[in-house]
Write a structure and sequence with these properties.
Three copies of one chain form a homotrimer.
Chain A: H1 3-35, H2 41-68, H3 88-94, H4 101-106, H5 111-132, H6 139-160, H7 166-170, H8 178-196, H9 217-238, H10 245-276, H11 282-296, H12 305-328, H13 337-355, H14 360-389, H15 395-400, H16 402-406
Helix pairs in contact in A: 1-2, 1-5, 1-9, 2-5, 2-6, 5-6, 5-8, 6-14, 8-13, 8-14, 9-10, 9-11, 10-11, 10-12, 11-12, 11-13, 12-13, 13-14
């Protein structure tokens, strides 16, 4: 394969997987929108559409450069240059200057293909935060936080790792983002929920939990299927090369391991749900599958597939136990995003050491540093937002539902929520 | 890269993007079906499934040849040969005649891969018309028009441009169909609505608008996400080559620019909706995103990404303003398809001149010629259909809902519409 | 194209198509979940999620090896080796041993890419059985059967054909599984329904049919669109090579023929539904489209596209007639899975002989042998399951709905089914 053919395949692969990862935003939207009470389901759609669009713009204007441009080897952050774009050599090549080909090909892949793939990852991080905060966060406050997340918090963490910064120099391994993407999202969500607080009535005075029923179970299931499918692309695309047989084999192992880990997570969580909840629980299986996929994301190219099953299964179990733990701690995470992404993400980052080979100390250091920073920076951001504009809807809006307040009822022919 | 490898990649790329564009038909169906009142939602599904199937058959039997086969350089129409298919050289190659390889490879891509990609574009055009006419058009009349559209109206326009006809010879540029696909669909929808008329009660005697609530907002959102995803494939696949580094870079810019334009359209429309409608409007963002994607379709390979943001943002704004304008004109476009596809499509065709380089006079001429023809031919077709078989359901059917009349209730357990 | 480039493209193609086929599981879930009464819709989701996860694990642990590993030429079954995985040469290559490249490339495609593609096929077989048994089968009994199906019944049939066994040696042709996948699923579903029985009240004492309305028609439509899209990948990926111009042409013909056959099936079934049912029936078109796609699956690379239209159209007609036939026979197939997959699958397997070239005797023998085995083995399995643990929910559970019993209401805010 010539270097140019390799460049073409690398780029094409990244674009196709990236397009499927973009589709995960739809999955997270359906999952969250179907999980809430119908009086808030339309606003969930608005939040997620807004978060996706905001992420795209902000990550283009400032985020990508903060993450990847001019990160010193071992450094802490990229450059605050505005507007990422095709390289000079790429523009020359498109302008007809064939001599630029060598310089273009030398980059391995086209600049904007990489931008797309990285951007849709930030979209996933935003979806995690959205899921936790459902039914009580102010739309504008949420979108402002997403802008900060996409412009600074996520790019900082990314620059340490995938951008070639200090954690990368120490040998921290996280192929597809168990920590970089999922734990970061989970920590941000945890910080957010501490500031925003629980939904009114979620915890009774005696400490017991008042479950709110999902308004549309098949929609939640559809969302989970979309997310599962997107994860195959998420993990596959993270192996950014497609230049020879070794790459093709690695890619195949990644997709197969991800499939197995997701299935194992779903099965393990369902089996546990029989014991913990006393019933075969659909949501346990859906979240468990996501937990399994998050857990395998750090090392989806693990050589032994049976380990993928084990890592995914444990991810699913952690996800279900995490939901229980949060309820004990009176932390209200509507869709279970924190257990699925933070809990399983931490486990997956450690699990790299099992068979893929990673230094447990470095992995733990990375988890702690990224966790500390993502949680701390998010907490500061949320406190500032709360101070400046408030982050929580009014009690009336919460009782009536955000849809009524924003004037977009989800199923206007079916239910009226005026006085609940 | 050998010519044969290039042929393989060109074809494979076209098939994958084409498969994702086919998926847009599901998106338009969900968007339209979720937007109407539930008494008509099932018939919307039937209309769209029927339009997709009709398009596939008709474009195979006659449409593709009318658009691409034997168009004279600078000509006005292709050949009315029946049945498109694999070329003779392709059939020889599959039959084991290795000597045919050179002739096959010389075509650049496999014949039926191109057929697929072009066919799913016609499916999009059909969806546009469907969206505008929701809740009052006769199913059979609609499908007959779609057959005429796929057999003749769209192929004629296509032959002038992508088929190598007179507009192409003048240098008209429209890479992924802002005018060829979207404006054509919008003009056809406009002609249709003038003949079919508004839904009863849509405009009150005093001229004010009676909004009909969508029956399922998350379904509309899902549909919009599907359409957004499909647009990435729509624009990417329109750059039909994948034969070297320049193609890979162009493809990356196209997908990135499309993503940015869609996001900008959504953001701009939402910001405007706060001002125009007094609220943050989900439908403005969904339609605005589509408007942005339509606007960028004419030149998604534009070199400066910031222009993509601007073009998309303006597309989103035009979409929202267009909805308002149509209401003033008492034109009832149920899902806002005309503003999103015609309004933003015209803008995008002009915007080619900004940074991509296009002759404003030629672009304007193309817009006028295609608009005049698509509108005129569609108007004639609809008048003929109305004369021959009527194009509008009975007053009773409209009051009861088309679902009841056709015997397929959308949510039979939830609502009865018998006497509304 | 070098052998290594061919290996890369073969593998990449298989992974992408396989990812889209995995997505069909979501489609079948939505189709089935939307088709039942809402009191059972959540359990349908659980059943399908469980079937997908079970299939992935079981086909990894034992199924794939039973189907493909060490099948004697002309043999009857593979090896009961546990755990499939990357080959030794692949592991050596990933470990840095460049000398292993030749052995890896010699396999044509990466091992786990093939595993993924085959596994998602078994997922489709499981979905077929699920669809037929909706609303009365015990969840655990169903999942146990799926495990047996994925571990033994499907792999046996597969080893005779795609695994290189005795039917393959005789020249049996079934490129994408009209018989291997779809008829096998249909026979298994038929055996299952004979043991499990009809839903209570489905057939009135006078023999007439009491139709149960679907709870969500647009969801059914979405599911069908997903399945249609997945079928393009299903049939395309079955042409496992992408190594030159001939492959690219064949792939294009496959995708185009599949599109045409699906469209023809939908159109033919709708036209027939006007005559048979007295109305234009949406479900006829959705099932007819699936029937057309199933029918073309045996020979989607048929050279004459018009035959694809005819084969698909007849598939659609058979699907609708089959639904009628089953009702006459008092066999309760909730979503029409048996006609769509078994009826159209048998027809498609015979239709191979028309233009693609196949020996009618061998095709008929294959259909009979696979049918006899799949039906017989499934019947035994279901009888054993029924004996050991029962296969049918209680009368109370059936009346109240499985959702209430399992504690996951589909639309808890909208309907209560307690006393129906």
């Amino acid at each position: 394969m010539t270097p140019e053919t390799a460049f073409v395949l690398n780029t094409f692969s990244l674009l196709l997987w990236g397009t499927l990862v973009m589709w995960m935003c739809a999955g997270f939207t359906m999952l969250e929108s179907g999980s809430v009470r119908s009086k808030n389901a339309s606003v969930i759609c608005m939040k997620n559409v807004g978060a996706y669009a905001t992420t795209a713009i902000v990550f283009y204007v400032v985020g990508y450069n903060m993450m990847y441009s001019g990160v010193d080897p071992g450094g802490w952050i990229g450059s605050p240059i505005l507007l990422y774009g095709a390289t000079g050599a790429e523009r020359a090549l498109l302008g007809g200057d064939g001599a630029a080909t060598a310089a273009v090909v030398d980059n391995g892949r086209a600049a904007m293909a990489d931008w797309l793939f990285q951007m849709v990852f930030v979209g996933s991080v935003a979806s995690i935060v959205s899921g936790t905060l459902a039914e009580r966060v102010k739309l504008h406050s949420f979108l402002l936080f997403i802008a900060i997340l996409a412009a600074f918090i996520y790019p900082a963490v990314g620059s340490w790792t995938w951008g070639g910064g200090w954690l990368s120099a120490m040998g921290f391994r996280d192929l597809a983002g168990s920590t970089v993407v999922h734990s970061t999202g989970g920590w941000a969500a945890l910080a957010a929920v501490l500031v925003v607080g629980s939904r009114r009535g979620k915890f009774r005075p005696d400490g017991s939990v008042r479950q709110t029923p999902p308004n549309n179970v098949p929609m939640v299931t559809l969302g989970a299927f979309i997310v599962w499918m997107g994860f195959l692309a998420f993990n596959a695309g993270s192996h950014t090369g497609l230049t020879g047989a070794a790459d093709a084999v690695a890619l195949s192992n990644i997709v197969a391991n991800s499939t197995l880990a997701g299935a194992a997570g779903a099965v393990a969580a369902v089996c546990l749900s029989r014991w913990v909840l006393g019933r075969v629980d659909l949501f346990a299986s859906l979240n468990g599958g996501i937990g399994g996929l998050v857990a395998i994301a750090a090392a989806p190219d693990i050589p032994t597939h049976l380990w993928a099953v084990a890592i995914g299964g444990i991810g699913g179990v952690l996800c279900l136990l995490g939901i229980r733990l949060l309820e004990r701690l009176k932390i209200d995470d509507e869709v279970g995003a924190i257990p699925a992404h933070l809990g399983a993400g931490l486990w997956g980052t450690l699990a790299v050491c099992i068979d893929g080979g990673g230094d447990p100390f470095v992995q733990a250091l990375g988890m702690a540093a990224i966790g500390g920073f993502a949680f701390g920076a998010s907490l500061l951001a949320w406190l500032a937002i709360d101070f400046a504009m408030g982050c929580r809807i009014s009690e009336t809006a919460e009782r009536l539902g955000q849809d009524a307040v924003l004037g977009i009822e989800t199923f206007p022919e079916f239910l009226r929520h005026e006085d609940e």
